[in-house]
Amino acid sequence: MKLLISGLILIFSLFPSISKAQTCSGDNCNLPPAAYVIPAPSDIANSTAQMPLARWGIGLGWSFAADADGPMTGGGFNLQFLFGPKFGVDFYFRGHASADDEADNESRTQTMLGASLLYFWGSGASNRGINPYFRTGFAYKNTSYYNSYDSSLNDIYRTETATNFEIGGGLQWRFPILLFGNLVSSINIETVLFIPGREEAEDRSSIFNLRVFFMIHF
After folding, report:
1. Alpha-carbon Rg of the chain, whole angstroms?
2. Distance CA 188, CA 171 (A)
3. How many whole angstroms from its chain centre is CA 21?
4. What span, in angstroms and rounded, lies between the C-alpha atoms of 19 and 15?
5. How far is Cα 24 from Cα 92, in angstroms, rounded to an integer?
6. Number of folded domains in the chain?
7. Structural domain of residue 70, as residue ranges?
8. CA distance linking residue 114 with residue 170, whole number of Å
9. 180: helix, strand or coil
10. Residue 34 resides in a domain
């Protein structure tokens, strides 16, 4: 009887060791919990390269325009769509105003609607890096003039409208927004020259336009 009791005590004393051996085997039992490893920059770049090209883009930014009548500043927004890495279209709205009274005490405000074809040269547009591009298209502009010291009451306010051909280019620096899935952002800087239409070629010079704007692509 004593021998039986001693055997049972021995079995129960060994049971925890046996259970531990069954649930934890090998060298992994004494290892600490696995730590999270931050991906290397190269891994992030590779994941970005595997993302599909973000084709749609919306932007908001600053604009500077200048012609023979003087400079104007303003801003606007644009909508872009890329057919592929090489070609795309851009639709935009711009608003400008002269900062101070110009020659002959005349100030101006201007609104502009435009549509352009984009061509990304080199390997084309990508989700990361600098993408140079050319643009060409047409813009419809409405310019209002106000002369506060005009002796004639009839010409204090006047408005001109015209459709201009545009040609230019710029740089689009794209970089991913890793916290928001497949969103890509970009900083854009471009210069555009507007050539006067036939109806205003005699009395209007070309318009130089500098634009800096921020975009979100998806």
Report:
1. 33
2. 6
3. 58
4. 6
5. 65
6. 1
7. 55-217
8. 16
9. helix
10. no
Q: For the segment 4-58, what is each residue's pLDDT rounded down to a tens digit?
A: 555 555 555 655 554 444 445 555 556 566 565 565 555 545 555 568 999 999 9
Give strand pairing partners of 191: 169, 210
State the pTM of this model: 0.71
Whole-number pLDDT of residue 120: 98
Give dist(CA 135, CA 125) in Å, integer.
14
Q: What is the pLDDT of residues 161-193, one digit of tens each?
A: 999 999 999 999 999 987 777 899 999 999 999
Phi, psi (deg, nearest 5) at residue 14: -85, -15
| CA angle centred on 90, ends 213 and 204, rounded to 5° | 85
**Token pair for 52:** 């599909």
- CB-based contacts of 179, cutoff 8 Å, min separation 6: none
């769509």: which residue's tokens? 81
Q: How many helices (H) and strands (E) does the chain have?
A: 2, 8
* C-beta atoms surrounding 135 within 10 Å: 20
Question: What does the chain come to in residues?
Answer: 218
Q: Is residue 65 part of a domain?
A: yes
